[in-house]
């Protein structure tokens, strides 16, 4: 480099004056901005994408989706079954290394690419677009049974409202549906072979299982239950039909109401006799159980299904965020709220289980149940013995309905966003009609679950619909993003939104830990699939075959689409593979609109 006082070369042009340099730089910037704007305009779809009216609406929508019925009926049971307070150690470990990285990954993907689970893959790895179709199938399967469970809660709510001037219908054994074996829970000389009024109300009045012989003969549709499910779908439709404009208003009720009710129920529960013993049983650590691999698998499974990556909902909800929204902070906040809600629900449930054990003079193991039996039999039993039982029943079932609603319309929002983004002219312009058709289609598919033997179909769909397939689908999603698209490229996308690159912890989880976490969880779940059905009913062999067909139709979307892309792509096999694993489209970060008017 010549020293500062070296004269310019004889043929070198003179340095332009500072003003000219500044003007040239400004003109260059304007030209480049105009080029960028023209590219953005040329790639911008005709329908401008909506954004959330308020940041709080997005957070409430994510919390509402993640916090569902499983937080109330599964986490407390899993916790006390796997070591009480000691279970929180594997639970937190699995949250940090498995659930949270996947949760953050999906929020960042949706926000950066601003599209649903189908169009997304054109910008990551076109060969894996089958993952998006698999997610849509999983959400449809889930809608076929999850809304029926909410319909049960609606049935209970109507029965509770009809009992305002009398007693709850599951309080006594003096009802037409009761059997000679019915014994009130407060009877000091209970028949060891007897059943409780709440159990008979659920099985013989709500479901009317006695009129079915299982899946071999499920019987006709129960009209009252089918009407309850219609009511659920109507609420879902009006939550989704206008997109985030309608969803953002609904979540203020469906996401916040459960917390109000949980706190009210907690305040009531801890004052009941025996509540202290129930909470002590819930939290007392059994450290030796940490040596059991099943405890760690249960913790991983609970975290995964609680946070809900892979259902496409997080992608859809975050796709309506502004580009520079801090999705990292959102992931930490919403996942923490979800886990704390599960922990809070444990206090609500076990304070009442302790009370029931006290009333019946039993141990808590004999009282407690997992799943629907906990919230449709055991908890209503306890409510029936309280002063002001009708009031407690009304608010409890309102809580169950709101917990279920925002989770179910979260899943259907994933399907709606995916298909409307993929087919903007055919479906995107007619969102209201498309959502109506989708709800009607899923309702028709759900009608068999409202038959007298529908409860067996609900369990089958729960396990073989999303239960097994979702684990493999999310593994394929994580592998596509982290191994094919690449952690470095994904981290650069996150940096363009947040202004900083994700740290080594997140990169290590995305590269190695989270995909392995999912693969191990999938293998163990497949090995234990029959245990997931549970219950006293023995499922016929043909139904298990049908279940595996459901799982297979979902999982097969991924390899079939890869094969399809290979066949339609020209060139040698090596070039085809290279082509279908490289992004077809590039997401261009938004430009300040004011600059485009220069």
Automatic annotation (TrEMBL):
Residues 1-19 have a biased composition (Pro residues). Keywords: Membrane, Symport, Transmembrane, Transmembrane helix, Transport. It comes from Galleria mellonella (Greater wax moth). Residues 1-23 are annotated as: Disordered. It comes from the Eukaryota. It is found in: Membrane. This is Transporter. Belongs to the sodium:neurotransmitter symporter (SNF) (TC 2.A.22) family. It holds the Pfam family SNF. PROSITE patterns: NA_NEUROTRAN_SYMP_1 (PS00610), NA_NEUROTRAN_SYMP_3 (PS50267). It is a multi-pass membrane protein. Its main location: membrane. The chain crosses the membrane at residues 58-76, 88-109, 130-158, 221-238, 250-275, 295-317, 337-357, 377-401, 433-457, 463-487, 508-528, 548-568.
């Amino acid at each position: 480099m010549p020293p500062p006082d070296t004269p310019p070369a004889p043929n070198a042009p003179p340095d332009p004056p500072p003003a000219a340099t500044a003007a040239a730089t400004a003109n260059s910037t304007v030209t480049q901005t105009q080029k960028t704007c023209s590219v953005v305009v040329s790639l911008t779809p005709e329908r401008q994408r909506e954004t959330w009216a308020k940041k709080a609406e997005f957070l409430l929508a994510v919390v509402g989706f993640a916090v569902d019925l499983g937080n109330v009926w599964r986490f407390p049971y899993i916790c006390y079954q796997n070591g009480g307070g000691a279970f929180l150690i594997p639970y937190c470990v699995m949250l940090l290394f498995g659930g949270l990285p996947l949760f953050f990954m999906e929020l960042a993907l949706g926000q950066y690419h601003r599209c649903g689970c189908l169009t997304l893959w054109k910008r990551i790895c076109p060969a894996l677009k089958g993952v998006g179709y698999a997610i849509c199938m999983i959400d449809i399967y889930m809608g076929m049974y999850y809304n029926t469970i909410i319909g049960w809660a609606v049935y209970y709510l109507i029965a509770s409202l009809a009992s305002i001037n009398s007693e709850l219908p599951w309080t006594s054994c003096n009802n037409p549906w009761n059997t000679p074996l019915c014994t009130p829970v407060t009877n000091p000389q209970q028949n060891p072979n007897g059943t409780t009024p709440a159990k008979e109300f659920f099985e013989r009045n709500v479901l009317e299982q006695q009129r079915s012989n299982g899946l071999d003969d499920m019987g006709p549709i129960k009209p009252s239950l089918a009407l309850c499910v219609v009511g659920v779908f109507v609420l879902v439709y009006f939550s989704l039909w206008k997109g985030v404009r309608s969803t953002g208003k609904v979540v203020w009720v469906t996401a916040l109401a459960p917390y109000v009710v949980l706190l009210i129920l907690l305040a009531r529960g801890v004052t009941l006799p025996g509540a202290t013993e129930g909470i002590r049983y819930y939290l007392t650590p059994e450290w030796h159980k940490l040596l059991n691999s099943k405890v760690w698998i249960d913790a991983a499974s609970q975290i995964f299904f609680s946070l809900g990556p892979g259902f496409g909902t997080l992608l859809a909800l975050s796709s309506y965020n502004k580009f520079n929204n801090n999705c990292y902070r959102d992931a930490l906040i919403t996942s923490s709220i979800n886990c704390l809600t599960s922990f809070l629900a444990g206090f609500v449930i076990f304070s009442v289980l302790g009370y029931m054990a006290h009333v019946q003079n039993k141990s808590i193991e004999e009282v407690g149940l997992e799943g629907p039996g906990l919230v449709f039999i055991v908890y209503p039993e306890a409510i029936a013995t309280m002063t002001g039982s009708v009031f407690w029943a009304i608010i409890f079932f309102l809580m169950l309905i709101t917990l279920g609603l925002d989770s179910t319309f979260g899943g259907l929002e994933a399907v709606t966003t995916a298909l409307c983004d993929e087919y903007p002219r055919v479906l995107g312009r007619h969102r209201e009609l498309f959502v109506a058709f989708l709800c009607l289609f899923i309702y028709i598919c759900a009608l068999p679950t409202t038959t007298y033997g529908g409860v067996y179909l609900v369990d089958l769909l729960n396990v073989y619909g999303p239960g097994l397939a979702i684990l493999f689908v999310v593994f394929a999603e994580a592998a596509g993003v982290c191994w094919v698209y690449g952690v470095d490229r994904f981290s650069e996308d996150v940096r363009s939104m947040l202004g900083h690159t994700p740290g080594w912890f997140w990169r290590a989880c995305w590269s190695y830990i989270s995909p392995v976490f999912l693969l191990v969880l999938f293998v163990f779940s497949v090995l234990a699939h029959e245990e997931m059905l549970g219950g006293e009913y023995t499922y016929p062999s043909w139904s298990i075959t049908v279940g595996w067909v459901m799982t297979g139709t979902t999982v097969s979307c991924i390899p079939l689409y890869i094969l399809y892309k290979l066949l339609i792509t020209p060139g040698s096999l090596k070039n085809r593979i290279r082509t279908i694993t490289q992004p077809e489209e590039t997401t261009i970060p938004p430009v300040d609109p004011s600059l485009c008017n220069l």
